[in-house]
Amino acid sequence: MKLANLLMERRININLKARTKDEAILELLDMIKSESVKLDYDAILKSINEREEIENTSYGHGFAFPHARTDAVKEMYILCGVSKKGLEGKTVDGIPVHVVCLLLTPETIAKLYLQTLSGLAVFGRIEGNLEKILAINHGSELIKLVADTGITVDKELMVKDIMRHSVAMVTPDNTIKEVADRMFRYRLSALAVVDDHKKLLGVICDSDIIKAALPNYKALVSNLNYDLDVEPFEELLKQENKIKVSQLYSQEYEVTTPETRIVEVAALMIFKDVRRVFVTSESNELLGVLLRKDIVNMIIRG
């Protein structure tokens, strides 16, 4: 099914009057009210706000995708609004939010909900789309713009629907200090190791850094009275700008493609007890990463 087929002209407002995202959400909900649809709007708004408190849905590139799964609705609603001036508030990339797509779905249609969100996010990432949207004068033009991209909603949930497109990376020439800094900055326990052409070479984990400080860790585990000549972590700190990723990273990792079914990757993760699977192209270019926690967060939490 094409993503454009899910959009309705009467649920598109290309001239939002709102100044903030919160005001935009209320203005978009008014479009449903104007259809005389009787819903518990307080419950809907509560669900939307709860989702925003978990994580800001301002996506970047000038787009925001507030959404909620709630049994206060019995069908899926996609409400789109365009602010020509741009909304107030901070964004991840400094570009004001101009396009707000509000997605409401019942608890029972998680697959379509996630695929639709994914399709809208793909649309938002296409270079030049924001400028094209700001130039339109009618809702039908937005639907045509989405249709022209050819974005589809698949029958099954795929890796591309959930994967992270932004991946924290290092090269073999980076130092362990740079690795530790990036892990701390992005709250990650592992980083992809790539070459200068973004080809995936391996992975470096926090455990690899600890092993660098404790090369005899097996002896320590078997004998807690094992005598240490020096404080290992102090020695590691002295070498943090000299030890390279090339000395520590592992070439044992799991990969998949964007078109692989989520159920297949989830089964692999459980079977091999892995937390992450890298997403690559046929030429081994790193495209993204799928984390085990993201499967739980996206599918269960939404």
Describe what this molecule looks like in 3D.
This protein is an alpha/beta fold. The chain has two domains: 3-153, Mannitol-specific EII, Chain A (3-Layer(aba) Sandwich); 169-301, CBS-domain. Helices cover 39% and strands 16% of the residues. It has twelve helices and twelve strands. The strands form three sheets. Strands 1, 2, 3, 4, 5 and 6 form a six-stranded mixed beta sheet that branches. The chain has a three-stranded mixed beta sheet with strand order 7-8-9. It is elongated, with a radius of gyration of 23 Å. The model has no long low-confidence stretch (mean pLDDT 88).
Shape: elongated
Text of the CATH class of the largest domain? Alpha Beta
Helicity, as a percent range:
25-40%
Helix/strand-derived category reads: alpha/beta
Q: Please trace the helix and strand order, writing H or E for each element.
A: EHHEEEEEHHHHEHEEHHHEHEEH
The amount of beta strand, in percent, is 15-25%
